[in-house]
User: Fold these one by one.
Assistant:
Number 1:
Amino acid sequence: MQKHSDEALVAYLDGELDDAERAHVEAWIEADPNVRDRLLALAESATTLRAAFADFIAEPVPDRLLAAARGETMAATEAEIVEFRPRRAAEPSAPPSRRWYVQLATAAGLFGLVVGGGVGYVGNGMLRPSAVPTDRQLQTAALNNWLDTAAGDYKLIVNAGGSSLVDVAANGDNGEVLQKISQNLPQQVRLPDLKPWGLSFQGARLVVVDGKPAAQLVYNTDNKAIGPLTLIIGSTKQPDIAPTFEKRQDLNLLYWRHQGRASVLVGQSEIGYLWGIANDVAWQLDAI
Amino acid sequence: MGTSWNNPEVGTLSSHWSHGESPENGVSPVAPVSKRFSDQLIAVLPRLRRFAAGLTRSATEADDLVQAACERALAREHQFQEGTRFDSWMFRIVQTIWIDQLRARDIRKEDTDIAEERLGSDEPVRRVEARLALSEVRRAVAQLPPDQRTTLMLVTVEGLSYKQAADVTGVPVGTIMSRLARARVALQQLLQAGAGERRSMKDAEA
């Protein structure tokens, strides 16, 4: 690979260079504004490319493919023409119906419903003194407390400049990073690969969720529309819930629980991006 | 990975019929399939569809390709090695079948015949530039040579590392780098050209 080449720029964007190569490319970018512009254009086209195909992750999988994956064959469908469903470019479409996070997702997320919303907001000391809180109210309060903490943890890490506060910084060997952080957790943490979104892993922190340790994974990108972003993964004994959208000041939060794991994605990016990223995260945590 | 897998493309697609009933009426079992394997396959279907959509020129063609890949994977279930990445194994199967299909067709003819479905011609025109722009991106991808298209989808969209993409496609990492760079530059130029055309049309309308 030539040091001053498109290959070098693309590999730099993809995080595929070693330290020396990366330093060389950075010096080149620093020295030549045209190169910086070229780099930005390449990064932008990659983001656009991912957006162009993002809907495939969220839209329902045709029945004939599900049947094929189960080892069944649907004779009548062999000649069937399956139409592309219209997709919406920048907004999340309905996730596939086979998934656990489907049913409530769109409604709850897009229209701002909150789990336990019918009960009313009871977090942050807003419980009425005369009322004996029900289990559901307590759960809602705990949930709000969790989300407040997640938002606070995000602010803390971002205000500190991204990776300077992480307990274990990304060092090229993410397996080692995760092993270190997992030593303090009740379960092994997996690291979702968010490169398709242009997000690179910066490091991990130990945080406390619901009185128990959890991992806060920190991602960043030059694309301000997406990052920085944090993902907190903790353990829970609460029942599963579908991804649900919440706001805390200028932050968007998307949270869900699945099979003993509670996750919350926090960022300033628009909810459409968060949905797509959460979808990828859920898939990677559960399927790989 | 390429070295650790048995080659999933060896054998015939129809070999599994001997295990089950003939699929004459509706849904029939094809072969004994482990639920775990089937679950893994179902979980990866959305990404397979996305990958296939980047390779092919229509939604129907993409789903046909994924369906063929599912059938092949089930017939080769015993060849998948636990501990290796299932998604990469499936990407490789999709890519292999797609290349076989390309070879069996008059590719040059197809290259000038981008399916209308791909362009989203059924979309109402008023459904805005954002939608059109994304269709334009997919159309631009479809104009790339097959090897660049595959590499672009594997690395930039599916997020595989260069090494993983090299294993899936069976080429050296250096080849992945050069294909990817050519693809990214070509894509950027195609998108710029498209944006320029839209600007010209707007100017003309004004």
Number 2:
Amino acid sequence: MPVVMDADRMARALTRISHEITERNRISDKLVLVGIRTRGAPIAQRIAKELQNILGEPVPTGALDITLYRDDLMRQPVGPQPLVRRTEIPFSIDDKRILLVDDVLYTGRTTRAALDALIDFGRPRDIQLIVLIDRGHRELPIKADYVGKNFPTSTNQSIQVHLSEVDGLDEVLLEEGIPV
Amino acid sequence: MDYSTSSHQVVESNDSAMPVKTIQARHLLSINDLSVDEIMLILETAEAMKEIGSRAIKKVPTLRGKTIVNLFFESSTRTRTSFEIAEKRLSADTLNISTVGSSVTKGETLIDTARNLEAMAPDMIVLRHPSSGACHQLARVCRARIVNAGDGMHEHPTQALLDAFTILAHHGCIKGLKVAIIGDLLHSRVARSNLLLLKLLGAEVCLCGPPTLIPPSVSDFGVRSTTSIEDAVTDADVIMMLRIQKERMRGHFVSSLREYFNVFGLTSARVERAKSNVIIMHPGPINRGVEIASEVADGTRSVMLEQVSNGVAVRMAVLYLLAGSGETI
């Protein structure tokens, strides 16, 4: 499979995004990071580390599971249910600037579900979206604020993000021939 | 990662970010309906559901538009409330029917009641009934998914699942644990479901009670039984007390409640014989001074109220997984 992004480029993209975050936000802003499970969560942890290096103070970081908010649950009378994982946001999000992190932005439906879930946790001051790859094909009016790499794809392709925390190595692959 | 719009595509795209798991059975009637993997799936899902109960807004939109009927032919506070809270936290529409104020008091049979409810197209029915096997009977005539919330002296599977969840939270695993189940074993559906589940997960179970309250078939389950509570609790990791079910006792099973307490009641002195990190469980409601001393029920080793909070999370997991389980209709 063609490599869209290797480990080195991924690290640089995350460093750049971290600097962009500090450019666009003030240090006094109450920043928090929330990663969407599965692979948004470790990416959020990496950005947290970078931000701590730049700002000199830790940024609270949480993980969000959006399964129970998906819009395709219960669409059929029966069918297997996606695995629900634990949401861990051990801090209040009221009046915070949330940096929402996901690996791939595609239809925008995951982001929609994440926004709904976050609103159930409180009333943040704003929510900014960070994605490692934006592959296009939005089905909802959603746009990322920070993008690691724009990579236009066709719908019969698929983007596979591998992270060392989950998969043992860092790389982004392009998979061809996915049935539409 | 973004997901495609149909759950079937999620399965076919082999998307490792969104694993899809299911339980095979359409209904939850007995622990025997579940495999070890399915039990672990329920308990893992319950772990995620538990977090929802700690939020300011304790609600997720998952079962929006689903109708769940809680059909209770026996009095119940804990189980009915627990199911109802679980259903509401998943955004299902719920309604409660209890024997008082329903057509059952006018002589309608269970099947007729169920058929009439079915005509209003509920998605699930949670049934508690004084007759063993009532849920199986309902499952044969209903399209709705049936969850057994206790049928007579048969089973109470969600209680066993929440007990397993509570044990796991304290001991980290169930395999190899010494579990003593003590009390009215003959009438207890909680004991039966727990016995099946704990055996399946590899616990070493010891049953204890007066000879009149130990069912003759107990040896079929392949577990030890004893009439000495001292013997049963020695080195136990878990002590599970059962209520003396006065309402099911037709005949003389124990000579007096005071004598029962003297011989089989769980006292501090008896707890001393167990492991120092033992947990003491009870499905409730408890009879203080009958099967358990107040100081033990309220003591530091007692996890009875945790069992109640865990019950909501486990029932949420069961309802969520069952809503997508089984073969196509």
